[in-house]
Amino acid sequence: MSTAMSAQGLYFKAALLLAILAQSACATSTRPVPVSDATGEATLAVEDFLRWPLQGPDGYDKAVAALFGAYRAQAFSTAPPSLYARNPVRLGDGFSLAGAQVDNQYWYRAVASVSIADQPCFPMDRAAKIAGIQWSPPAPATGVGRSFSVEQNGMKLTLTESQDNPQCLADISFLHLATTRRTK
Questions:
Q1: Tens-digit pLDDT profile for residues 62-104
Q2: Which end is more exposed in the chain, N or C (fewer Cβ atoms within 10 Å of the end residue's Cβ)?
């Protein structure tokens, strides 16, 4: 009887441990995300995604590597790798990503998109200034997130305003200008 009780207790402990691990795996990270060694940075910041892609191919690759590092569990190990994540990740600067997408399916070079969380609001004017984009506040009650782009060093960076609050940055997209669509 004691053997049956100890086995039953062991199963209970194992089930409890699995439940705790599953719950913690689904929880949102509240600590800043460390960046992989590919970026050489201690933690990620929204400004990194505004600067790195415009530095040219090396900066672009650094930004994509940082996204794969931040969303390691959601990255698809296809060749070439892709990413589609819609969970929040807090960055070292106190802002959060709402999700990210790296599309390698249709393009020879990845097209990347980083969604910025509404709270706290990353100011659109600050984002535009860092990226070197001319931006002006919209007329009240437009309800449409406008997009603004800049091309530099063979890259294109596009910033999109939040539809709910156009003073806030909602999305950063970047791609190689020399990329072409895959035919197969």
A1: 999 999 899 887 776 666 677 889 999 999 999 999 999 988 7
A2: C
Using alpha carbons, select from 169, 163, 172, 161 the residue that is nearest to residue 123: 169
Amino acid at 122: F
- Give the separation between CA 64 and CA 27, rounded to whole angstroms: 24
CA distance 170 to 166: 9
Angle at 149 (CA atoms; ends 56, 88), nearest 5 degrees: 80
Q: Which residues of the chain have pLDDT under 50?
A: 1-5, 7, 9-42, 182, 184
Q: Which residues, 6+ apart, have CB-to-CB distance to 173 below 8 Å? A: 111, 112, 113, 114, 157, 158, 160
Coil vs helix vs strand at 26: helix
Lookup result for tokens 């998109």:
113
Rounded distance, CA 87 to CA 30, Å?
A: 12
- The residue behind tokens 């207790």 is 9
Rounded distance between C-alpha atoms, residue 174 and residue 150, angstroms = 10
